[in-house]
Every structure is written in structure tokens, then in C-alpha cells.
Amino acid sequence: MQEKNTFEKIYEVVKQIPRGKVASYGQVASLAGNKRWARVVGYALHVNPDSEGIPCYRVVTKDGRVSSAFAFGGANRQVELLMADGVEFEDGHVKMEEYQWETPWIY
Questions:
Q1: Which of 10, 28, 40, 56 is catalytic?
Q2: pLDDT tens across 17-67, in order?
Q3: For the packed helices 6-16 and 25-32, what is the interaxial angle rounded to 10 degrees?
Q4: What are the counts of helices (DSSP H) followed by strands (DSSP E) for the chain?
Q5: Do the Cβ atoms of 55 and 93 come closer than 8 Å?
Q6: Which of 54, 64, 91, 96 has its CA at a distance of 20 to 30 angstroms from the CA of residue 14?
Q7: How far, in whole angstroms, is CA 16 from its chain's centroid?
Q8: Which of 41, 85, 32 is nearest to 62 (CA)?
Q9: DSSP characters for 49-93?
Q10: 56 among known catalytic residues
Q11: Taking the mean position of all CA atoms in its chain, how far away is CA 93?
């Protein structure tokens, strides 16, 4: 059995983020195996090979900001996709206390 590479581990985590929830880059990094991979998560999402199956738009900064470099249409498109999922924004960022994916098993 072949071990998954870093990007594959990240994509597996992102696929699990439920509709209507978001995760931070650091949260995805921790779930993928290394809490220091937050920047690597950004790289992986920027080259996402399956934007339909891997909902990279559900990953935001720890304070709920969207990516200005969102690879699939820019920040405005990321906001549109999140709002279509039912995620609400306040002062330009996701209300993390309400919409962050709860994953108590990583902390």
C-alpha cells in the first residue's frame, strides 16, 4: 500500500469539511498530520486538481478571511460559494465562532 503524499492528506481533510462550515488553514494542517503545514495547505489548495470534489473554498484564515489568491475565481468567488453554502460574513470575514468546523479530536 502506497503512503499518501502531503497534498493527498490535505485534500482528504478538505473533502470532509461539511457544507455550511469552514476550516482554517492551520486546522486543515493539523488534521492532515502537521500543524506547521498551514502554508503548505495554501499551496495545495492553489493547485487543487478537483475543484468540484475538493471544496477548497471552505478553507479560510484563522480569523475568517478569504484568500485574495483564490485559484478558482478570486476572493469574490470564494465569498459567493461560501454564501451559497449558508455561511454568513460580518465585516468582510466569516463569523468563525458560528461557522468553524468543530473537530475536537485534533486538539
A1: 56
A2: 999 999 999 999 999 999 999 999 999 999 999 988 999 999 999 999 998
A3: 120
A4: 5, 4
A5: no
A6: 91
A7: 10
A8: 41
A9: S-TTTS-GGGEE-TTSPPPTT-TTTHHHHHHHHHHHTT--EETTE
A10: yes
A11: 14
